[in-house]
């Protein structure tokens, strides 16, 4: 393991980019961290690139934050504050001074989801900058007491943001309702999950407020019945979405003059059979399409939709979880490729239909076959050589694809595909080790991160003592790997490639 770790470190240090070294840094011991740190944190250009890297490890970003605070590097601070992966303790360094952070930096800190509560509390109590307070109200991690503190300032332009925030408590929402006549703010208060109970029993005058009340999960059934008859189609549509709307009101909504209302009714999982019967002959194709995909539609009613003139309706029938086998067989021969692709996506596809669709020439159909868990490995091997990337990606995403099939795809031209192959559970660590020379910098960083977690001295020491010398060869040993793999699988994996570290 130490030999493989040393090789990873040397490869990372010799690379023309810093991302492989950054992937190893969190898992290295003190000596290797010093060597990797000299590669990562000396050049300001590299520090700025790492600070903007969203897949960088928190330990790397924390060290960058220490350097930024020590050197008073405002540009580096801004990049770290903008990076969503920067940990909270690193962000706290930027406010741990006698001077308040610059307005632009303060806005980024106030909006950052990882910002610690103490930092957010300081910004809420001391900042007078409207942009900072707005950023604070947009932060999903702000606790309710800080939102109450902001509301007490009485800033009108922040009221709607406070009413939207899920952490706002009922008392603050009630205070917002009383302190404003703005319809947009009141509508958000009515839609809020913590909306005070006293506000849910009266019909508002504004259509926006009535739409919000119709969407409120705690709205009384009597109010929802009235909203289902509202003159505004948006209000009726919202009432059709509410699971508490009475069944009697749904009957009226399924005959609504507006198609957008009927489409929403067709999505409900609690539709009575009579409503299904009324909707199944609707003149709007999207109503029929939605109903055909809805599990509430009984399988016997799909007979009326399987020959629909709209291909989207027939595809929805093919995707219905309880579609009868006879209808599935009929749709497997549909003239529209998108319909046949819907059949190919079914997990319960019979073997005969699977073989029939495997001979299809449409890319969408073959992509579905490539992802199907019952597709034979010989067929997956043929699809792995398909010229279209979507089909090959279907093979990679197939959890049942064998190791032998996956080995064909290790040299895919798309970095994302190679990363997905690397992460497939049926690939061995020995196979993964041979992908360590990936030419794409982000893909290589992800690969090195995996090996760093598996082989790094910090991880190895925590896992316990190494195995005895008489143990079987390590799964990453090249000698063991050569005995395991046939020669044709090794032809592109020279141990000393000449150009593997060149940027793409």
TrEMBL record:
InterPro entries: ARM-like, ARM-type_fold, LRR_variant
Domain of life of the source: Bacteria
Any Pfam family: LRV
Ranges of Acidic residues composition bias in the record: 478-487
Descriptive protein name: Leucine rich repeat variant
Renumbered residue ranges of the record's region Disordered: 463-504
């Amino acid at each position: 393991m130490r030999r493989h770790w040393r090789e990873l470190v040397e490869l990372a240090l010799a690379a023309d980019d810093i991302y492989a070294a950054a992937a190893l840094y969190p898992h290295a011991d003190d000596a290797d961290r010093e060597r990797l740190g000299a590669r990562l944190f000396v050049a300001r250009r590299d520090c700025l690139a790492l600070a903007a890297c969203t897949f960088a490890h928190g330990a790397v970003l924390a060290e960058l934050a220490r350097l930024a605070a020590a050197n008073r590097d405002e540009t580096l601070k801004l990049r770290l504050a903008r990076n969503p992966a920067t940990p909270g303790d690193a962000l706290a360094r930027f406010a741990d001074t006698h001077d308040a952070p610059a307005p632009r930096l303060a806005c980024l800190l106030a909006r950052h989801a990882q910002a610690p509560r103490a930092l957010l509390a300081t910004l809420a109590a001391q900042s007078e900058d409207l942009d900072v307070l707005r950023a604070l109200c947009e932060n999903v991690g702000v606790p309710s007491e800080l939102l109450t503190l902001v509301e007490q300032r009485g800033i009108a332009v922040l009221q709607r943001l406070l009413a939207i925030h899920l952490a706002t408590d009922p008392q603050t929402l009630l205070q917002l309702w009383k302190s404003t006549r703005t319809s947009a703010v009141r509508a958000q208060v009515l839609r809020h999950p913590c909306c005070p109970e006293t506000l849910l029993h009266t019909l508002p005058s504004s259509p926006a407020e009535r739409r919000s009340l119709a969407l409120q999960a705690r709205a009384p059934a009597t109010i929802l019945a009235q909203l289902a008859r509202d003159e505004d189609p948006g209000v009726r549509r919202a009432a059709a979405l509410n699971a508490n709307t009475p069944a009697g009101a749904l009957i009226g909504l399924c005959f609504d003059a507006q198609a957008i209302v009927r489409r929403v009714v067709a999505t409900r999982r609690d539709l009575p059979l009579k409503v299904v019967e009324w909707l199944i002959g609707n003149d709007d194709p999207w109503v029929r399409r939605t109903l055909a995909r809805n599990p509430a539609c009984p399988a016997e009613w799909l007979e009326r939709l399987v020959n629909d003139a709209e291909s989207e309706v027939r595809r929805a029938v093919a995707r219905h979880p309880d579609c009868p086998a006879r209808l599935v067989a009929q749709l497997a021969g549909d003239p529209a490729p998108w319909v046949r692709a819907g059949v190919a996506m079914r997990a319960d596809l019979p073997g005969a239909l699977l073989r029939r669709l495997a001979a299809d020439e449409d890319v969408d159909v073959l992509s579905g076959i490539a992802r199907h868990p019952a597709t034979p490995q010989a067929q997956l091997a043929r699809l792995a050589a398909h010229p279209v990337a979507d089909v090959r990606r279907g093979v990679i995403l197939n959890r049942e694809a064998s190791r032998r099939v996956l080995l064909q795809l290790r040299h895919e031209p798309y970095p994302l595909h190679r990363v997905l192959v690397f992460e497939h559970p049926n690939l061995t660590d020995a196979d993964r080790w041979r992908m360590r020379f990936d030419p794409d910098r982000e893909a290589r960083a992800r690969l090195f991160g995996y090996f760093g977690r598996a082989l790094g001295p910090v991880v190895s020491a925590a896992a316990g003592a190494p195995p005895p010398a008489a143990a079987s060869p390590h799964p990453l040993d090249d000698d063991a790997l050569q005995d395991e793999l046939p020669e044709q699988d090794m032809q592109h994996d020279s141990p000393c490639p000449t150009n593997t570290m060149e940027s793409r």
